[in-house]
Design goal:
Elements: H1 5-16, H2 24-34, H3 44-57, H4 64-73, H5 85-99, H6 104-116, H7 126-135, H8 143-156, H9 162-177, H10 186-212, H11 222-227
Length: about 230
């Protein structure tokens, strides 16, 4: 049975922002992109999880429709060999929204939100903080879901040699654990901060154990691993 829920959510948002034209072609284009065979985590399942999280905090957003649209498009372009996925995703979103005669202020807002997911840095803008926390909500999920996420990230970087991946992934996770707080908003800190730290610490232990058995090598893939931090 085909699950039409994502399409229904998309059409509802399309109508809410008064976008012109048929909402089905841009949805189907996006759905096809999210179903690309090289994806394991950054799929429609991830988008739907983000939308579920967004539904819980929609009242906290200053521009909830822009946040929701940014969530739809933030992984529209996903190539682990590239370092400009967010820029290309923002460009695609802008093209689709302009074609639908959406106000330019909304288009620019969506683009800025998408670009903020590139480094997941702590931002001052409340909507950006909310969006990034939503994108990082996977860190605080039950252990089996977080572990599946880690496996999916490895699948997406299957082309990276084992030792290089261990080094890059360790640095990425360590950077999150070294933050004063992983999450920027009170809601997500209260809900996910503690389990996120437990999950990340456990994953780091596994990576360190694997690295102990591996021969160190120069990480030739440092740039792509850092630019494409987990989302």
């Amino acid at each position: 049975m085909v699950d039409h829920q994502p399409e229904t959510q998309w059409i509802t948002l399309w109508q809410r922002i008064a976008a012109q034209g048929d909402p089905h072609p841009p949805y189907h284009d996006l759905a096809q992109r999210l179903a690309e065979p090289h994806r394991a985590y950054h799929t429609m399942r991830h988008i739907l999880h983000c939308l579920d999280e967004m539904a819980c905090v929609r009242h906290l957003a200053a521009h909830p429709d822009a946040v929701e649209m940014a969530l739809w498009y933030h992984d529209a372009i996903y190539d682990t060999h590239a370092t400009d996925n967010e820029e290309q995703s923002a460009t695609l979103a802008a093209h689709r929204l302009r074609d639908a005669s959406v106000p330019e202020t909304f288009v620019q807002m969506v683009g800025r939100l998408i670009m903020a997911t590139q480094h997941h840095a702590v931002e001052e803008d409340p909507d950006t903080r909310l969006l990034i926390d939503i994108d990082l909500a996977i860190f605080g999920q039950p252990a089996h879901l977080f572990d599946a996420y880690e496996q999916h990230i490895r699948q997406e970087y299957a082309w990276v040699p084992h030792e290089a991946f261990l080094d890059g992934r360790t640095r990425i996770l360590r950077a999150f654990l070294d933050r004063t707080t992983i999450y920027a908003t009170d809601y997500f800190r209260q809900r996910y901060e503690a389990p996120a730290r437990i999950n990340i610490a456990r994953s780091l232990r596994v990576l360190e154990q694997q690295a102990y058995l591996s021969t160190p090598q120069i990480n030739a893939f440092e740039g792509t691993l850092d630019e494409n931090a987990p989302e």
